[in-house]
């Protein structure tokens, strides 16, 4: 056995490892600068709207706000759709990881849809509920603060995830 | 040129640690913001119920909503984790590829 035999074995092992690992992989969608920009813009519009109703509303003046609600809900729904229609990479790798996680009964499988979709859908549902409440009864300042905090929480989730994709 | 296995292991550890340390800082900041906002929401709901400022329907809605947002928080954390795993994976593969290239002189094209 020659002196450099162990080195040859190590090199062969590394080569096989490299082939096994195959190459660079992608487990999450690509960063979408346009989507992120859309999120920051609609976030500013949302905060302006919440500021304008922070003292509460009267159902008698709902018609003045109706267009604001529909415009914001429409923009959020469009962004959720934009996030959800991105190609999802690494489905095979993700399936392998999920198969392993499922075998451990840990119930923590990775979903193929980006989590920002669920967060944006939540913002849309919060605004819809707020709009309905405003139209039917008007809103107290406390209710406005509660709806605003819901939107802030969900928007933070969407913005953080989309920004994190810029790797 | 032979491959220094100990150096390779050290390089892999460094690459993985750099990615993990950077990402953990960001994830920790996000988690702290979310937990503070969820706690504030719980406090606002409790105060509104005590002061009778929201009716039963709206109370039930906000309580269900809190649960949905906590679930979305967990989903977002899982999404962030997937990105970190991807970055660690690619950093490790990059180190292994470079080591083999340096050792064999063969150019291995790394798919992006």
Polypeptide structure, described:
The complex is a heterodimer of chains A (167) and B (112). Chain A has six helices and no strands. Chain A is mostly helical. Chain A has a single domain, classed as Four Helix Bundle (Hemerythrin (Met), subunit A) (Up-down Bundle). The longest helix of chain A is centred in the C-terminal third of the chain and has 24 residues, at 141-164. By secondary structure, chain B is an all-alpha fold. Chain B has one domain (5-104). Chain B is 85% helix and 0% strand. In chain B, helix 1 (5-50) packs antiparallel against helix 2. The longest helix of chain B has 49 residues, at 56-104. The mean pLDDT of chain B is 90. Chains A and B meet through helix 1, helix 5 and helix 6 of A and helix 1 and helix 2 of B.
C-alpha geometry of chain B: rod-shaped
Q: Please mark out the parts of chain B with pLDDT under 50 across 5 or more consecutive residues, or reply none.
A: none
User: Would you tell me which CATH topology of chain A applies?
Assistant: Four Helix Bundle (Hemerythrin (Met), subunit A)
How is the quaternary structure best described?
heterodimer
In CATH, the architecture of chain A is: Up-down Bundle
Helix content of chain A: over 70%
**What is the H/E string of chain A?**
HHHHHH
Integer count of domains of chain A:
1
* N-C termini distance of chain A: 47 Å
Which structural class do you get from the secondary structure elements of chain A?
mainly alpha
Broad shape of chain A? elongated
Count all strands of chain B and give the number.
0
Number of strands of chain A: 0
Blueprint of the fold:
The complex is a heterodimer of chains A (167) and B (112).
Chain A: H1 5-21, H2 33-52, H3 62-84, H4 91-103, H5 115-136, H6 141-164
Helix pairs in contact in A: 2-3, 2-6, 3-5, 5-6
Chain B: H1 5-50, H2 56-104
Helix pairs in contact in B: 1-2
């Amino acid at each position: 056995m020659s002196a450099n035999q162990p080195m040859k074995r190590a090199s062969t092992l590394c080569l096989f490892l490299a082939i096994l690992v195959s190459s660079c992989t992608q487990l999450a969608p690509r960063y979408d600068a346009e989507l992120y920009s859309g999120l920051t813009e609609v976030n500013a519009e949302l905060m302006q709207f919440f500021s304008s109703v922070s003292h509460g509303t009267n159902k008698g003046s709902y018609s003045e706000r109706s267009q604001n609600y529909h415009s914001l809900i429409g923009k959020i729904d469009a962004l959720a759709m934009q996030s959800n229609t991105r190609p999802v990479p690494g489905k095979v790798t993700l399936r392998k990881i999920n198969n392993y996680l499922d075998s451990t009964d840990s119930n923590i499988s990775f979903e193929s849809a980006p989590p920002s979709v669920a967060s944006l859908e939540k913002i849309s549902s919060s605004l819809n509920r707020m709009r309905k409440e405003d139209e039917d009864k008007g809103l107290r300042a406390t209710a406005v603060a509660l709806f605003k905090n819901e939107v802030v929480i969900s928007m933070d989730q969407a913005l953080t995830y989309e920004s994190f994709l810029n790797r | 040129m032979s491959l220094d296995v100990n150096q390779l292991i050290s390089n892999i550890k460094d690459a993985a640690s750099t990615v993990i340390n950077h990402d953990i800082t960001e994830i920790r900041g996000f988690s702290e913001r979310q937990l503070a906002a969820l706690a504030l929401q719980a406090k606002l709901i409790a105060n509104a119920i005590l002061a009778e400022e929201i009716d039963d329907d709206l109370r039930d809605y906000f309580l269900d909503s809190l649960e949905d947002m906590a679930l979305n928080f967990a989903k977002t954390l899982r999404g962030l984790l997937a990105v970190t795993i991807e970055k660690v994976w690619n950093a490790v593969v990059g180190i292994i590829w470079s080591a083999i290239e340096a050792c064999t002189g063969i150019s291995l094209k790394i798919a992006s």
